[in-house]
Write a structure and sequence with these properties.
This is GIY-YIG domain-containing protein. Pfam families: SLFN-g3_helicase. This protein folds into three domains: 147 residues, no CATH class; 215 residues, Rossmann fold; 190 residues, 3-Layer(aba) Sandwich (Rossmann fold), CATH 3.40.50. By secondary structure, it is of the alpha/beta class. 36% of the residues lie in helices and 18% in strands. Helix 9 crosses helix 10. The model has no long low-confidence stretch (mean pLDDT 92).
Length: 585
């Protein structure tokens, strides 16, 4: 395969004339980069990526844009004798998403949508992409290596991802439905559901939709001569700009930790800002109405229950009184959102409900039944785990009353039992050195003594394996000492890890006589996780608690992209799981 070239130009009024002197820049598929480095005192520069058949004309169109004239200084055009349209779209997407994850430049592109499609010889072209990236890293377009970028929250939560086909289909269907509904006088509370197992990219779709709606409303690049070949180009027309311009949109994230991480990404993304990432309480207290609210991890929305503190209880009561008046005392956070927004898009996985305060599964199922199939979209393709959909289902099967008939293996995915807790820690340290983002996590089978006494040990498994719970509730995965701590379900739900070291405590056990997985309520130390809901007269029964503890371990066991190591405290449970996982020494 012949080599590529990267030709630099000054981004000035003469660039069209200069480029026209090159035959390949008048009629050949190329990818180009416009950028300016961070100026003195600024944290970020600016960058724009594109692909075109006529670089010369495209530069004239960009030079006519006042914002680009002011912010961009240099153009680089990437030429390869064997580039075609598919390759150029793929390279453009590759560079955009890595620039967003790098964070050294503000990415000025809109996200019109490149689907992660295969094409002839793609694997060989991808090796060239790596070389192109490395050259641009040396020239200052990027500041971090690809492994560093891929492990960053800016990359993992970026709105510039290449969507897979079922993600793109869901986005197209939702956007078409929203456009139709925005033309009507719809009543508040119109619901749409996107369902999917762990790792299918529900959070990616939520963030992508936020950016897409905002870009359409802003009119970003409309009329600049875009080729219109990408998936969502059809939505960037003047009529839709009016539909979305000035609309109030918000992304509701119930979990504190994930909310902060997404807020960090929004702060560095044109068109988005941290204030768009909200709690259910913030939406409920807002004096105005929202046009569209997207809820990530919607299964974590709360029903009316005893809250963590007296002030939190009073706030819940006050919100219900203000929104619903007399008779609305038991309304849930979902009811708040339906009252405060015309359209609500819920990212949902009912197998990830982990606390009695979460809205009951049967309530969601009833709403889903009422909505019918027209308002429901399903994500199928596993995006997180190298073990694929088979691994995710295998975990659920192992934790079910009908376990697999035989042990399965999952190719390159590294999974197995680790008998020694010290060895588990050593494996996580080793994988973190090799790949980054390796963390230990555990079920809530130990008290959180270090919350009040910072020197206390929470999880004492052996003289050489003594750990504390996560010492921060927000963005723990990326915190300074996370590698040496153990994260709870509330710090990792919604996050990706390269490797997860999962500790299964004595809250989950195995009864050899009955052949059943059982729980020990006394060894489950999340007080809110087993509290009865007296307000709704709903007891946290053994069956309900068992389902939530199993959900917790299913979530923990499906965090790892490259692998999962499992240490089991209960000997009979360790023997049971040994039927399905080999031992790693």
């Amino acid at each position: 395969m012949t080599s590529y070239s990267i030709t630099p130009f000054d981004f000035t009024s003469t660039i069209e004339k200069q480029a026209a002197e090159h035959e390949h820049l008048r009629n050949w598929p190329v990818v180009y980069v416009l950028n300016s480095p961070p100026s003195s005192g600024e944290k970020q520069g600016y960058v724009y990526f594109g692909e075109t058949l006529n670089f010369s004309v495209r530069m004239r169109q960009h030079w006519a844009n006042e914002e680009k004239r002011e912010k961009l200084r240099t153009a680089r055009v990437i030429i390869h004798e064997e580039f075609n349209k598919s390759v150029c779209l793929d390279l453009e997407s590759f560079l955009i998403k890595h620039a967003a994850g790098d964070g050294s430049h503000e990415v000025m592109n809109r996200n019109t949508g490149v689907v992660d499609s295969d094409y002839f010889d793609r694997e060989r072209y991808n090796t060239i992409f790596q070389d192109i990236f490395q050259e641009m890293l040396e020239e200052g377009v990027f500041q971090r290596s690809i492994p560093e970028i891929v492990n960053s929250e800016l990359f993992k939560l970026s709105p510039f991802k290449s969507l897979n086909h079922d993600q793109a289909t869901a986005v197209v269907d939702i956007m078409e439905g929203l456009i139709e509904d925005l033309d009507k006088e719809t009543e508040p509370g119109n619901l749409l559901f996107i369902e999917g197992d762990p790792g299918t990219g529900k959070t990616v779709v939520a963030i992508y939709l936020m950016k897409l709606m905002q870009d359409i409303g802003d009119g970003r690049d409309v009329g600049e001569g875009e080729t219109g070949d990408t998936v969502f180009s059809e939505f960037f027309v003047e009529g839709n700009r009016e539909r979305f311009d000035g609309k109030r949109i918000a992304l509701v994230v119930p979990q504190q930790s994930l909310r902060k991480s997404i807020g960090n990404v929004f702060d560095r993304t044109p068109g988005l800002n941290r204030n768009m990432v909200m709690t259910p309480h913030q939406v409920a207290r807002d004096p105005g109405m929202f046009d569209v609210v997207i809820v990530d991890e919607a299964h974590r929305l709360n029903q009316r229950s005893n809250q963590n503190s007296g002030p939190a209880n009073n706030e819940f009561i006050e919100i219900n009184r203000n929104l619903f008046g007399e008779g609305g005392e038991l309304k849930s956070q979902l009811d708040w959102l339906r009252k405060k927004s015309r359209h609500i898009i819920l990212m949902l996985d009912l197998r990830q409900t982990v606390r009695p305060q979460d809205i009951a599964r049967e309530e969601f199922e009833e709403i889903l039944e009422q909505q019918g199939k027209k308002k429901r979209y399903r994500l199928h393709t596993q995006m997180r785990s190298l073990g694929g959909n088979d691994y995710i289902q295998y975990i659920y099967d192992v934790l079910s009353p009908m376990p697999p008939a035989k042990r399965l293996s999952f190719g390159e995915y590294e999974v197995g039992l680790v008998d020694s807790p010290r060895r588990l820690y050593e494996l996580i340290l080793q994988r973190d050195r090799e790949h980054g983002l390796a963390r230990m996590v555990a079920g809530y089978a130990w008290e959180w003594a270090s919350k009040k006494n910072k020197s206390a040990i929470d999880i004492d498994l052996a003289p050489d394996a003594r750990f504390q719970w996560n010492q921060t509730d927000t963005d723990w995965v990326n915190s300074r000492n996370a590698l040496h701590e153990v994260g709870s379900i509330h710090t990792v739900q919604g996050y990706d890890l390269n490797y997860a070291g999962v500790i299964i405590g004595r809250d989950l056990r195995y009864d050899p006589e009955s052949g059943e997985l059982i729980i020990n309520r006394d060894n489950y130390h999340d007080k809110k996780g087993k509290e009865n809901n007296k307000l709704r007269k709903r007891d946290t029964t053994e069956e309900l608690l068992r389902s939530m503890i199993l959900n917790i371990y299913a979530v923990l066991l499906t965090r790892g992209i490259k692998g999962t190591f499992i240490h089991v405290v209960d000997p009979p449970l360790r023997e049971y799981l040994g039927r399905y996982f080999s031992v790693i020494h």
